[in-house]
Every structure is written in C-alpha cells, then in structure tokens.
UniProtKB/TrEMBL annotation:
<dbReference type="InterPro" id="IPR008258">
    <property type="entry name" value="Transglycosylase_SLT_dom_1"/>
</dbReference>
<feature type="domain" description="Transglycosylase SLT">
    <location>
        <begin position="163"/>
        <end position="233"/>
    </location>
</feature>
<dbReference type="InterPro" id="IPR023346">
    <property type="entry name" value="Lysozyme-like_dom_sf"/>
</dbReference>
<feature type="compositionally biased region" description="Basic and acidic residues">
    <location>
        <begin position="103"/>
        <end position="126"/>
    </location>
</feature>
<dbReference type="Pfam" id="PF01464">
    <property type="entry name" value="SLT"/>
</dbReference>
<protein>
    <submittedName>
        <fullName>Transglycosylase SLT domain-containing protein</fullName>
    </submittedName>
</protein>
<feature type="region of interest" description="Disordered">
    <location>
        <begin position="103"/>
        <end position="131"/>
    </location>
</feature>
C-alpha cells in the first residue's frame, strides 16, 4: 500500500473554477432526482392555458363624439356666416348712407351756386343800367324812363312832335332872336328851354348841362306837366 506522500494540513484552497464545477455537479444531481419523480408511464402532464375572453369594442361613443364635433363646426360656420352677412349689410348701409350724404351735399352746393349766380345776375342788372342809342330815338326813350320814375307824363309822340318843331332834333340848337334872347336868356336845346326854367324844373339824376338831350327833355316835360298837364297838350311855343 502506497503511503500518502502529501503532508497533512497542506490541502490547497478551492479555486473559482473548482467552485463552478461543484455547483454544476449539484445541479445535475437535482435534475436526476426530479426525473425519478416522473410517473412510470413516462408522460409529462402540461396544463393548458385558459382560453382568453374576446373583448367587444363599441363605436357608439366615437360616433357620438364625431357627431358632436361636426355639430360644433356647423354651428361655428353658421355664426361666421352670420357675422359676415351682418358686416356686409353694415358695409352696404354705410356705403348707401355715404352716397346719400354726398348727393345731398352736391345738391346743396348746386342750389347755393344757383342762388349765388342768380344774385350775381341781379347785381349785374342793377349795376349795369339799360343803355340807349345816342340818337333822337334813344334820347326820348331814356327821358321817358326817367319821367316814369318821377311820375312825369308825356308820350313818345308828343315829345317827338314838339322837339321837331322847336329844334328839328338838334340838341345844340339856340334861339338868339326872340324876346328871351333880347332879354339875355335865349332858349336852348331840343325843346328850347330857357336857363331859369331848366334850373327850376331840373330833375335829380340827370345832367345839369342844359344842352344834354335827356336832361333837356325831362326838364321841359316837367315844366309842361306843371303848366299844361302834359307835353302832349303843347302845340306851339310854350
């Protein structure tokens, strides 16, 4: 018999490899023990998993949510449309009011301008006296217009007839041979008026020149109206 040559007390400590090997042997042993507990039939019994219950899903809520959102969108669209319609109506009203105001202002300006033009025409008529031709016809007509304002009678025919007899229509005519001339106050002008008579019956607004045809006619007719009622009643020297 061989002697143990290894000295006692000098056993080496287990390494990590040795520990892993021992653990593996232990595991194999446990597995062997477990196999011996299997029934003799050699069949293993496995439990079947319980059938999973089917889950039922409902789309009713989703449909309700969709309908609610759709309704809200429709309501919002209606509100927007109503606001836009209201704004459009307000804009049209503002435009119509602005147009009416502009038309009213234009009519007012036109009326004002028309009144102004009318007033200007009236002023022009007042400022611009009627003109008459510088001849016998014009002198008689202008004299009669002045006589009318002062209430002095005398027809065109009566004045014309006496002028032709007295001066033949010459406004510068002068009588230097009758009694008035002898007395130093000769008759002058269209109707042969002496200076004192012209001065006494002169009508304001006419010339103070005795040779002025219009002033001479008016003064002579004023004198004839005072002495004879009208120049129409005079048929000879007066």
């Amino acid at each position: 018999m061989l002697k143990n040559i290894l000295p006692r007390g000098r056993s080496r400590s287990l390494t990590r490899t040795h520990k892993v090997a021992i653990a593996g042997v232990g595991t194999l042993g446990a597995a062997a023990v477990a196999l011996t507990a299997v029934p003799a039939s050699g069949q293993t019994t496995t439990s079947e998993a319980a059938p999973t219950a089917k889950v039922a899903y409902s789309t009713q809520q989703i449909q309700d949510v969709h309908a609610g959102v759709t309704g809200q969108l429709a309501g919002a669209s209606q509100k927007v449309a109503a606001i836009e319609a209201k704004q459009e109506a307000a804009a049209k009203k503002a435009t119509a009011e602005k147009k009416a105001a502009a038309e009213k202002a234009a009519a007012k300006r036109a009326a004002k301008e028309s009144t102004s033009r009318s007033a200007q025409r009236t002023e022009v008529k007042k400022a611009a006296p009627k003109s008459y031709p510088n001849n016998l016809d014009g002198w008689i007509r202008e004299a009669r217009a002045i006589m009318k304002k002062h209430g002095i009678p005398g027809s065109y025919e009566g004045i014309h007839r006496n002028i032709m007899r007295e001066s033949s229509g010459n406004p510068k005519a002068i009588n230097d041979w009758d009694i008035n001339a002898i007395n130093g106050i000769p008759s002058k002008g269209l109707l042969q008026v002496i200076p004192p008579t012209f001065k006494a019956y002169h009508v304001a607004g006419t010339s103070k020149n005795i040779y002025d045809p219009v002033a001479n006619i008016v003064a002579a007719c004023n004198y004839a109206a005072d002495k004879y009622g009208t120049m129409d009643n005079v048929d000879s020297a007066y």
